[in-house]
Design a protein that fits this description.
The chain is mainly alpha-helical. It has one domain. The chain has 5 helices and 2 strands. Strands 1-2 form a two-stranded antiparallel ribbon. Helix 4 runs antiparallel to helix 5. The protein starts with 22 loop residues before the first helix and ends in a 12-residue tail after the last helix.
Length: 151
């Protein structure tokens, strides 16, 4: 008589994850969403000012690698900002006489908050995001309250 086979049964199929866009694809999407200027210094992207994607909440502080956490920034601003909080860097850019886009930053922070609310998780990023949104709200002029605007 023959020996019995000791093969394992085949593993159940793993559901395929949606592929994350690559770096070039993310940069293209961010530029389409945010426009062709650096969020921090306001310079237009071109040959001498190459665009990069930058994490609003830095990865080291728990920021996710999601499109909602990325903005278009020039290489200089991206490198100089490092891991500083977004509002700290915004204020530094203003001290330098640059034209940072605080409204775009507010939209990016709100979009990230909505993505975290939808997807969940991101325990480490939440305090940094909450602090940045709170500090930026104090700086921006008051707008219409969305609860009182008629549809």
């Amino acid at each position: 008589m023959g020996q019995m086979s000791r093969r394992r049964p085949p593993a159940p199929p793993v559901p395929a994850r949606s592929r994350q866009p690559g770096r070039a694809e993310r940069l293209t999407e961010v530029l389409e969403r945010d426009g062709g200027t650096c969020i921090w210094c306001g310079r237009a992207f071109g040959g001498l000012v190459p665009p990069t994607t930058e994490h609003v909440v830095p990865r080291v502080k728990g920021g996710p690698s999601w499109l909602a956490n990325e903005v278009a920034a020039c290489r200089r601003c991206n490198a100089e900002r490092g891991h500083r909080a977004p509002v700290d860097w915004l204020e530094e850019c203003e001290r330098r006489g640059w034209r940072p886009d605080a409204a775009r930053l507010a939209r990016a922070l709100d979009a990230l908050q909505a993505a975290i609310d939808r997807e969940g998780g991101q325990r480490r990023a939440r305090p940094h995001l909450d602090a940045a949104r709170r500090r930026l709200r104090r700086r921006l002029p008051p707008g219409p309250d969305p609860r009182t605007v008629a549809s």
